[in-house]
């Protein structure tokens, strides 16, 4: 049975002339004059997705975008619809499909967005590809530019990330049905109905172009994802690919239900018509996976940022009691007070300085992006993975061992704040990288075996065990 058009539910309307499965007649696809701010004139009933039934009803629904696909249908007629976006929207109770027709409006859609829609009709999908997927059999077809009783709204500022974050009504006390690891997926789990993967983004590749079968080009982005068993790839094609730019390596967790896949030693995942992607769901497994991923980065980071949230240099500077410690005493303090946070001063000597060598090796500055170390003798550099421009910090390895009479801090282990580097070097990072070689050589000679007082902090509650942070340098 073909899906009914909205008009067939209203006695005064003319019969639909379009092919079965299309929601609108050509007349309906003509635009009315553009409306400015939309104000509902009808009473709309609020509904969750699981309680929807097919038929005409004035409904308003909220949910998050879990999949979408642009279907351009260019028309030369003025004011006609130029295509639609097929969107899957999920709340905590279920998933539905939306055909959002557009003429001039560009909807800046991304996976995970909170949206509200107002519609006058819900239809039952009839299994035809493209109308509504099996995972979201109920659908609505709306053309807000032409139908004043339909509207689609993306919540940007009003989304605090708390609504509809428990897909399938997930409970912390129960494992989600169908949830498996990447390794189990590769080993045959892809055959399981309603299989689900929970992965953390490890890195995001650059935006690339590919040519479709019909000769048009569109974008694709591939992200490397991981869980506690393995790594895999997730490729987003077309307009949905822009969603990946908002993801953060080692932080963003994706729950992917019914992914498209190709197994090639590892899992190569993509989005098909049934796939649903939930971003950062509030479920226990997601929190566990994020903690696991972040532990990986902390071990590897080549230049951890100064923890400004833990140590306030101004406050430390104003402390009434200023204690000078020996390195051995700090070591002892760390062993006996594992939960404490302390600040104080140490008087030390730098035994090696490597500014010139690191400059020549293009390693004067460093940082990490997408979990990969980056080095350059410049303040800014582009990440090879995500193509974003990153700000680099001074490479802590320009200082060799730092010693006092009682102990040593080995190369690269101190975490300087930007201000502390500036006090030590007498210049900003920008001035350092643009200095002449003569100035760099002079700096090395001046700092070598110089007695320095470092204002330090140590916090053993964090994972930076054994690393001192330096918030000021006095000569
Ligand atoms: Zn990057």
TrEMBL record:
Region (Disordered) location: 1-26
Sequence ranges of Low complexity compositional bias: 1-16
Top-rank lineage group of the source organism: Eukaryota
Record-linked InterPro entries: MEIOB, NA-bd_OB-fold
GO molecular-function term, one example from the UniProt record: single-stranded DNA binding
Cross-referenced SUPFAM superfamilies: Nucleic acid-binding proteins
GO terms (BP aspect): resolution of meiotic recombination intermediates
The protein's name: Nucleic acid-binding protein
């Amino acid at each position: 049975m073909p899906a009914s058009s909205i008009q067939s539910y209203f006695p005064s309307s003319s019969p639909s002339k379009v092919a079965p499965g299309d929601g609108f007649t050509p007349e309906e696809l003509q635009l009315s004059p553009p409306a400015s701010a939309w104000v509902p004139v009808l009473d709309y009933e609020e509904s969750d997705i699981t309680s929807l039934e097919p038929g005409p009803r004035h409904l308003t629904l909220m949910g998050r975008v879990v999949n979408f696909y642009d279907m351009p249908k260019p028309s030369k007629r003025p004011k006609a619809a130029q295509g639609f976006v097929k969107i899957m929207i999920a709340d905590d109770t279920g998933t539905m499909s939306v055909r959002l027709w557009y003429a001039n409006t560009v909807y800046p859609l991304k996976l995970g967005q909170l949206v509200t829609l107002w519609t006058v009709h819900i239809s039952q999908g009839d299994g035809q590809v493209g109308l509504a997927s099996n995972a979201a059999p109920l659908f609505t077809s709306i053309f807000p530019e032409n139908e004043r009783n339909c509207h689609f709204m993306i919540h940007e500022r009003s989304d605090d990330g708390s609504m509809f974050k428990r897909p399938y009504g997930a409970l912390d006390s129960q494992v989600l049905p169908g949830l498996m690891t990447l390794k189990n997926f590769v080993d045959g789990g892809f055959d399981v109905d309603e299989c689900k993967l929970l992965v953390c983004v490890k890195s995001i590749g650059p935006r690339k172009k590919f040519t479709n079968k019909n000769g048009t080009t569109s974008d694709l982005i591939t992200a490397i994802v991981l869980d506690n068993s393995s790594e895999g790839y997730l490729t987003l094609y077309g307009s949905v690919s822009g969603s990946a730019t908002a993801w953060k390596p080692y932080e963003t967790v994706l729950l992917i239900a019914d992914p498209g896949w190709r197994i090639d030693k590892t899992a190569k995942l993509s989005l098909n018509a049934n796939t649903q992607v939930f971003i950062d769901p509030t479920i226990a497994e997601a929190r566990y996976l994020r903690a696991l991923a972040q532990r990986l980065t902390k071990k590897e980071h080549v230049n951890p940022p100064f923890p400004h949230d833990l140590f306030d240099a101004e406050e430390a500077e104003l402390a009434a009691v200023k204690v000078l410690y020996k390195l051995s005493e700090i070591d002892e303090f760390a062993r006996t007070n594992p939960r404490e946070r302390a600040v104080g001063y140490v008087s030390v000597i730098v035994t090696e300085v490597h500014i010139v060598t690191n400059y020549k090796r293009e390693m004067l500055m460093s940082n990490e992006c997408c979990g990969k170390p980056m080095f350059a003798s410049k303040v800014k550099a582009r990440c090879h993975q995500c193509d974003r421009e990153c700000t680099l910090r001074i490479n802590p390895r320009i200082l060799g061992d730092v010693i006092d009479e009682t102990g040593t801090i080995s190369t690269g282990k101190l975490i300087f704040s930007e201000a502390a580097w500036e006090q030590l070097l007498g210049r900003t990072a920008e001035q350092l990288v643009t200095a002449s070689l003569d100035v760099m050589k002079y700096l090395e000679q001046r700092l070598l075996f110089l007695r320095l007082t470092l204002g330090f902090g140590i916090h053993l509650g964090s994972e930076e065990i054994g690393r001192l942070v330096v918030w000021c340098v006095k000569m």
